[in-house]
Amino acid sequence: MFRILHNTSWDFLSRWKLAILTVALFVVPATVLVPTVGFNYSIEFTGGTQMDVEFVEAPNIAEVRAALAASGHGDAEIFTFGSPREISIRAQEAEHVEQLATGAESVQQQIEATLTTTFGKDAFTIGRTAAVGPRVGSDLRRQATVATLIAFALTLVYLAWRFEWRFGAAAVIATLHDLIATLAFMLYMNIEISVFVVGAVLTVIGYSMNDTVVVFDRVRENLRSNRKQPFWDLLNRSVNETLPRTIMTGSTTLTSLLALLIFGGSVIRPFAWVLTFGIIVGTFSSVFVASPVLYWIEKRYPRANAAAPSRQHARA
User: Model-level pTM greater than 0.90?
Assistant: First the structure.
């Protein structure tokens, strides 16, 4: 049977400094951008109205914006998607959101009437529309936050039951790294945070935990059969032994996600982007984050009868 990366003996843990530098260069700029730029929330979380409009001929975006401004929607966001003939209009001004809550004429009807007056009734067709009140948007944002926290709590409970606390702490730190890195990626890519994207983030958390558990399972097995082997060597051996499984699982999943990125359309593409990055960063963290953190915890709080690391590895 064909096997890839069989019997490798790479020293992954010796790259921990490079891994920290890579993580810092990727995450730290995001912490600076969050207060100034912020995340791009969909109307599901902010409240408002979004309309997808397909024109017969590509419209002049400046003309569309001027028409909406004249009708009182000057702060509406307008952007193209799919093709130059397709535009998406998003109105999230506070007064318009309040209109949705009080039952006044919907923003959708106002925008449609404005476009009909400016371009003609047969010049466009209305596609997907969505209207969310401010209370619903606030509730959805809170529920998304709670769902993420519950996922982390369940991760802690599961790891505490399956492994000793050292493994659990390392796995949680690795999963937290994946969550932060994924949020940074979404900020850099200006991915709109919708219910679909929140689902993708929760999936990334589950995938990251699963990948780390596979590595730690092998570490636990090797600890039972090689108690005298230095922990540094044992961790490297465990990562190398699970590497073929990690590569095969990640590559097959990425193949499916590539199809979604190419053929999935504008609605599913943000979901696919987040999952694609999550698979990559989850694989990275299980090798270059979880294992070095577990080694550091073992040095700081050694187990009873544990083999001491060599001097060379201890200095690393």
Answer: no
